[in-house]
Amino acid sequence: MPDTTGVEIQLDAVTKRYQGQGTPAVDEFSMTIEPGKTTIFVGPSGCGKTTTMRMINRLIEPTSGRITIGGEDALSLNPDELRRRIGYAIQQAGLFPHLTVAQNVGVVPGLLGWDKAKVSARVDEMLDLVGLDPGEFLSRFPRQLSGGQQQRVGVARALAADPPVLLMDEPFGAVDPITRGNLQDELMRLQSELRKTIVFVTHDFDEAVKLGDRIAVLGNQSRILQYDTPEAILANPADDTVAGFVGAGASLKQLTLLRVRDIELSMDTPTAAEDETPAAVRQRLDDAGRTYVLIVDKQQRPLRWAHKRQVAGDSLATVGTPVGDRVTTQSTLQDALEAILTEGGHAVVTGGRGEYVGTVRLDTVVAKIAELREEHA
């Protein structure tokens, strides 16, 4: 397991009062946030979860209380210096529209005085880390990116100066469901490599269960209703309010706790590289008694499905139908089930760098659901 690069955060009786309001927005919030873990703040709109998170990097100044980050008093530091040591990712990425992708990602290292060569190397490294080809994306502007690409750049920018703490405020809330699932998977992959201390705000309990090592369910004024592991909250909600967040189908929500890597993948799907001859691929399909082949690129990344009758002519470069919804080994079984239903029976699974590692089938997931229901009963 990689070393933890995150640090502990402690909030002690942190309160925020706004002038002219009778009750505080956040009232004596106390919590210890574990280093190298992902802690989720989940709760209804207006409960104070974003205010609480923003007091950690002092985008909102606490009225009273104490905050320490890695044992250091955050309220005694210069606010600008503090923020440069904490990554921050928000909904719709918050990229500077007049700066290129490279300039956006390099903002904080530049402010910290890194030399140009070091900044350039770090920008390339960060884009590669979040799955964007530097050669293709460095000189683009935000308006030339999809929503999902913008969010990836936002995460790369937040991590560029290698901060021990990453704050994320509804970062995936403005993208479509498939892109959102992919970004969640990407964040889990990154965290498995980097082990930062992540504080993540969401109002989506399913997202909290999928991403969180620990979940804090918050009520009004950021009162902590329950602070525990996803497994414990699903199994034993602390009160009716928390049970309302869990919602119906708690046994099915257990699918969000299991990852695709936790079940057996099917490895019997024939694959073919784009530069193989169609005749050789057809022969392999005949020998295996199969009618479909998965065409992959040089990095073994899945590209297209092709029926045997499409494998003809001189080249595989354009034949077949693009692979649709896919999942990664980090995806939840709930994600896998949705992808399988979209794709019709099975879904392609990729590894940490997008390489093909197998397929996940409907009967495998259905068997796991039956097992979970039996355990829950």
Question: Structural class of the helix and strand makeup?
Answer: alpha/beta
Mean pLDDT across all residues, rounded?
A: 89
- Count of beta strands: 17
| Approximate shape | globular
- Major sheet: arrangement of strands: 6-7-8-3-9-10
Distance between the termini: 35 Å
Instruction: Give helix % range.
Output: 25-40%
In DSSP terms (H or I, runs of 4 or more residues), the helix count works out at: 15
- Beta percentage is 15-25%
User: Which residues form runs of ≥5 with pLDDT under 50?
Assistant: none
Radius of gyration: 23 Å
Tell me about the biggest sheet?
6 strands, mixed
Question: What report would you give on this structure?
Answer:
- There is one protein chain.
- 36% of the residues lie in helices and 22% in strands.
- The protein is of the alpha/beta class.
- A six-stranded mixed β-sheet has the order 6-7-8-3-9-10, with helices on both faces. The protein has a four-stranded antiparallel β-sheet with strand order 2-1-4-5, with helices on one face.
- α5 packs across α7.
- It is globular and about 75 Å long.
